[in-house]
Design brief:
The protein is mainly beta. The protein has one helix at residues 60-69, and strands spanning 8-14, 19-22, 28-41, 47-59, 75-88, 94-107.
């Protein structure tokens, strides 16, 4: 039998600061709310933004890192799966919710003006990867010796 596919990838902005809590066993759970905007025409034919809002749950070390570095308004990417749950509220009514369980969270902008944290990404559940920041110092000298334009004598060497 063929396997089913349950995968979601979103890019948007946080609508509130992350909420971190821990299970009785000490596992971290972070709840975030993501606004994802798209452009569409309204009834009068004018273009405008329409936002959709998604609840995202992040577990483990990624949850702690998200709680430490993310804040309202930050732009992130989320790769995960949809999870549906149903429960009975205190008033006896049935409630249901679809949320995104994050496998990876990508920090797509920096904190503040001078910012740090841009380019951070988390390894997925079971991937064994931690959070890492790409190292690309801007003050390293760059060798441009091989970036000179070819001389006109090289035109005969073109293979086509």
């Amino acid at each position: 039998m063929a396997a089913d596919l349950n995968r979601v990838t979103l890019v948007g902005r946080l609508t509130r600061d992350p909420e971190l809590r821990h299970t009785g066993g000490g596992n971290a759970i972070c709840s975030i709310r993501l606004a994802v905007s798209s452009r569409q025409r309204d009834e009068s034919g004018n273009w405008g933004d329409k936002s959709n809002f998604f609840d995202v749950t992040v577990f483990g070390r990624q949850a702690e890192t998200a709680s430490n570095y993310l804040s309202k308004g930050r732009r992130i990417g989320v790769d995960g799966r949809l999870s549906w749950r149903e429960w009975e509220a205190q008033d006896g009514s049935k409630r249901q919710n679809v949320e995104i369980v994050a496998n990876d969270v990508f920090f797509l902008d920096s904190r503040g003006e001078g910012g740090e944290g841009g380019g951070w990404s988390g390894g997925g559940a079971g991937s064994g990867q931690g959070w890492s920041q790409p190292q690309a110092p801007a003050d390293l000298p760059v060798d441009t010796s091989d970036m000179r334009p070819p001389s006109s004598a090289d035109d005969d060497d073109i293979p086509f």
